[in-house]
Amino acid sequence: MTVTARIASWFGRGEKAGDPMPVHAGVYSSSAGSDWSRASTSPATVAGFDRALVWVVIALVAWGLVMVYSASIALPDNPRFARQGFHQMSFLLRHGLSIVLAFTGAVLAFQVPIKTWERWAPTLFIASLVLLALMLVPHVGRSVNGARRWLPLGVMNFQPSELAKFATVVYAAGYMVRRMEVKERFFRAVLPIGLAVVLVGVLLLAEPDMGAFMVIAVIAMGILFLGGVNARMFFLIAALVVVAFGLMVAGSEWRRERIFAYLNPWNEKHALGKGYQLSHSLIAIGRGEIFGVGLGGSVEKLHWLPEAHTDFLMAVIGEEFGLVGVLCAIVLFLWLTRRIMVIGRQAIALDRVFAGLVAQGVGIWVGFQSFINMGVNLGALPTKGLTLPFMSYGGSAILLNLVAIAVVLRIDWENRVLMKGGRV
């Protein structure tokens, strides 16, 4: 169901409250208005997978590889990296290896039927909790800038919070399918998944990693909403989440400082403190103007802008490619998010509720995290440690991003098989 149709249903217009599948309209139709057996948007001879989606993801990954090299080429001049033996190609080679491993993992994930993911969902979620707990064990998790978020695995530093995002998607989707008949009852439908998210949040905030917790909370809430949870309960949950995050900020001095720095990054007190990254990100984007200074021409990446190859990669894109480059990135992420959501709606219209909610959960993940990252880089949102999906440097992030896209492609492939009259 579209957002407009859903709002209308709250006032007695639209689908019946007892309909177990709230997303039908706009994807499948017939002259009678009740035949969902064929797609009006896809012919019977369509290709086996969504090639446009694949090419957009490849374009983002390739562009990210180029930008990671551009943003990190001067980092070995820093004594911190020089002592570790880094050279100009180090980050490029490491990111390239991560991409190869990620595409390999994506190919393997595509082979797994969606029914298997549904069976594995609880186990995967528990495994992510165990890994998050391991991060808090002394001498197990790797600490960077005061945060213990990484598990050293030799070929890459694995970040369990990335696995937790994917695990939350499949677990919440499976949970809604199991609880579909009681979705109107708060304590039976919402409270258990809420407690699971709170548990994840406690482990993430202990690292600390509030950014990942925000993404996971939004993923879970989005799947509850799309799964048909009563609208009043949804807005109650949303209000509680907003209040909870407000209390977290109010109760933490360094989080409050980030908010104040966001409001005025040019203040003397903040310019060399919590507002340093934001102020230099804005300088970088301002230097880019309309068409940018050219690939490799960024000045801010030369030890002025911290984390230029990870959290603030978009600022380097803005400096080197200008407004045109930033708009291209925004359009690509908008198209990708919309296409993933369409695949999810198609799956739900085929009575594949779990598959549809998984696809839409991935769409929420990609869309929300890219929105937060771009908002932070552009100064529209407070600074938060979230990478740009598919583009920023990071082994576990690119791995789980591509695995999630592979699962969406599998859902799309199974949709097409069913629409051709086959079985999955």
Description:
The protein has 424 residues and is mainly α. The chain has one domain (57-82, 97-415). Helix content is 63%, strand content 3%. The chain has 16 helices and three strands. The protein has helices at residues 3-10, 51-72, 79-82, 90-110, 114-134, 160-178, 186-189, 191-205, 210-226, 231-250, 253-263, 268-271, 276-288, 313-349, 353-377, 395-419; strands at 142-144, 147-152, 157-158. It has a three-stranded antiparallel β-sheet. Strand 2 and strand 3 (157-158) form a beta hairpin. Helix 6 (160-178) packs parallel to helix 9 (210-226) and helix 9 (210-226) runs antiparallel to helix 10 (231-250). 45% of the residues are buried.
Features:
424 residues, mainly alpha, three-stranded antiparallel sheet, 16 helices, globular
Shape: globular
Q: How much of the sequence is in beta strands?
A: under 5%
Oligomeric state of the chains in view: single chain
As a whole number of angstroms, the C-alpha radius of gyration is 22 Å
Q: What is the strand tally?
A: 3
Work out the helicity level: 55-70%
Q: Biggest sheet, open or closed, and with what strands and sense?
A: 3 strands, antiparallel
Order of helices and strands: HHHHHEEEHHHHHHHHHHH
Could you give a quick summary of the protein structure above?
The chain is mainly α. The protein has helices spanning 3-10, 51-72, 79-82, 90-110, 114-134, 160-178, 186-189, 191-205, 210-226, 231-250, 253-263, 268-271, 276-288, 313-349, 353-377, 395-419, and strands spanning 142-144, 147-152, 157-158.
